Amino acid sequence: MKVETFTAKGETLVGADCRLSNDKGSASVLSGQSALVRRSGGNLMMRCELSGQPAATGQAVSRANAGLAGNILLGGVLGAAVDVGTGAAYTYPTWVRLVFGEDRLYDRGDHRDNTVAAGTVVRSNLPATAERKEEAAVVAATPVAAPLSASPPAPAPTPPVAASSPALAAAKPQGPLALRQGNSLEYALIDGFTQVRTPVHYRVDRIDGDRILFNQGARIEKADGQLVSVSSPAGGLFDSASPPDGWGRPALAPGMRWRSEYTASNGEKARFELDASVVGTSRLTVDGADLTVQQIAYQGWMFAAVGNGPAQALPFKATAYYSPDMARVVRFEAEYRRVYLGMARETLELVRVWR
Asked: Other C-beta atoms within 10 Å of 248: how many?
């Protein structure tokens, strides 16, 4: 992987100390040069430091490479299992450009070899300009709910409760209207078997009428939290297997049921047939705030092909914990049985709201 570093003004700076790491190990390289990194199913964390500059950080999203399907056809289950276990089944972008003072996301699915991956800005740590300071002063003068604290999220929901309490009302956020340009939602993507946690950021780059654009338009939502589109599935199954309007919806009530039949527009482009039902109301602690959430259970089938073979029917089930106060899913659990490779299980949970 070739690593380059730039300033926010587009000036090339070489010689920064860069560290690249994943669950298989780490490597060091000076920016402007290339390093060998171990392949892995986990994302690659990158950090470059240079005297006089704020750190340049990012993460490269791991994607299955074309050789996995070929190895299944030629080597069978054993060959595929070895590739997944060693990391050989996965790959990263081969040329990345980090920017000092910014945290960026680089998705192999959007990258072609021998071209540079500029990435998507997740968060900027640059000092505020005069214009930004003035905008921040206006925002600070606007009455909004207190920001969420930095406490870690609860590992699992508590037993169902009947309704929101006065204590919840005092702590609850204002919903998506409280999000402003520059805010960022930090989630953690957790592998259900290895417990490896990968940070996932959805940064508000623009609010256009009743639409909120995250990560330069890679994810677009309506003001009420309904999904409009996802072009880069950074959040695992939460993004890549999402129904057209998302996993949650407003005005939910226990006992509500509906059916979703759709073809995912990203990820594996698999077809889904899922039955959804609101099974109850629970309480979750998210970033130190006690929230009431609607628990939505999904169960059905995912139809996906491996290589050039026919589509296989894979059992799929998921649970979404939707917060009416935040108008979004704050926790998502999903699992399905992959062809030849066993069970896949993962959780995406909201960790913090950066304001």
From this structure: 25
Sequence-separated contacts (24+) of 269-272 with Cβ below 8 Å: 270/241, 270/302, 270/303, 270/304, 270/311, 271/302, 271/303, 271/304, 271/311, 272/241, 272/243, 272/300, 272/301, 272/302, 272/303, 272/316
Distance of alpha carbon 149 from alpha carbon 247, whole angstroms? 26
Query: pTM for the complete prediction?
Result: 0.54
Which residues in 343-352 are b (16+ Cβ under 10 Å) and which e?
Answer: ebebbbbbbb
End-to-end CA distance of the chain: give it in Å, rounded. Answer: 33
Token code pair at residue 59: 């993460």
Predicted confidence at residue 252, as pLDDT, reads: 86
Report the candidate in 135, 153, 127, 209 with the shortest Cα–Cα distance to residue 176.
209
Scan for tokens 């950021």, then name that residue.
Answer: 201
CA proximity to 106, closest of 220, 1, 239: 1
From CA 229, how far away is CA 221, in angstroms rounded?
7
Summarize the confidence of residues 268-273 as an average pLDDT: 81
The dihedral through the CA atoms of 225, 230, 232, 235 has a sign that is: positive
pLDDT > 90: what percent of the chain? 36
- Strands 257-263 and 17-22, sheet pairing: unpaired
Q: How far apart are CA 47 and CA 66, in angstroms?
A: 28
Q: Given this model, what pLDDT does residue 355 score?
A: 81
Q: Is the pLDDT of residue 181 over 50?
A: yes
Report the alpha-carbon distance of residue 56 to residue 124 in Å, rounded: 10
Query: In the structure encoding, which two tokens stand for residue 179, read together?
Result: 């999000």
SS3 for 291-345 is EEEEEEEEEEEEEECCCCCCCEEEEEEEEEEEECCCCEEEEEEEEEEECCCEEEE
Distance CA 66, CA 74 (A): 13
How would DSSP label each residue in 122-140? EEE-SPPPHHHHHHHHHHH
What tens digit of pLDDT does each residue of 121-130 get?
877 766 544 3
What letters, b where the CB count within 10 A reaches 16 and e where it falls short, cover 212-237? bbbbbbbbbbbeebbbbebbbbbbbb
Q: In this predicted model, what pLDDT tens digit does every residue of 36-45 receive, in sequence order? A: 998 887 788 8
Q: What average pLDDT does this structure show over 114-142?
A: 57
